[in-house]
Amino acid sequence: MSLVTLLPFIVLIGAMFLMTRSAKKKQQAAAAMRDEMQPGTGVRTIGGMYATVKEVGDETVLLEVAPGVHAVYAKNAIGAVLDDAEYNRIVHGDTEEELPAVPDDASSLTEAAAEAADTKDGKDAKIDLGKKDEAEDAAEPKDGKDGKADGGADAK
């Protein structure tokens, strides 16, 4: 057999080795993450439920899913161990930074635009709210038609 015929098999075996190696690393990382669980730690299960760890056993974890509600889960069911800030942000809606205030109505937005226009020109500039001038109204036909035949278009 020549080296050229063995090359695909060598590449295939190498790829399988690399895939199993990366899967093994992921499993070890998940096991290390589960081992760092302590009572009081916030976790997310693989089903997407957020809870607080109450007790850690050899194969199981006692989670408090709501105040006074406890459930026993397998350690393998823990998808992620969360730090306190992230857990509080997700579960309680706590934010560390202050968000900018948003007005309840748009009146403050139009007032700010009017003030900006006044300072720009030095005149009392008015905001165009989409009203048409009288000259444009006179140019349009009063019957609502635009002078085109039914089905007509501006195609060229």
Please give the structural blueprint.
Layout: H1 3-35, E1 42-45, E2 50-56, E3 60-66, E4 69-74, E5 78-82, H2 84-91, H3 107-121, H4 134-139
Antiparallel strand pairs: 1-2, 1-5, 2-3, 3-4
Walk me through this protein's architecture:
There is one protein chain. With 156 residues, this protein is of the alpha+beta class. It contains 4 helices and 5 strands; from the N terminus they run H-E-E-E-E-E-H-H-H. A 5-stranded antiparallel β-sheet has the order 4-3-2-1-5. Strand 2 and strand 3 form a beta hairpin. The model has no long low-confidence stretch (mean pLDDT 76).
Strand content: 15-25%
Which stretches of 5+ consecutive residues score pLDDT under 50?
none
The total of helices stands at: 4
Average residue pLDDT: 76
Derived structural class: alpha+beta
- Terminal CA distance reads 71 Å
What Rg do the Cα atoms give? Answer: 34 Å
What is the H-and-E element order? HEEEEEHHH
Number-wise, the strands total: 5
The description of the largest β-sheet is: 5 strands, antiparallel
Descriptive keywords:
156 residues, 4 helices, flat, single chain, alpha+beta, five-stranded antiparallel β-sheet
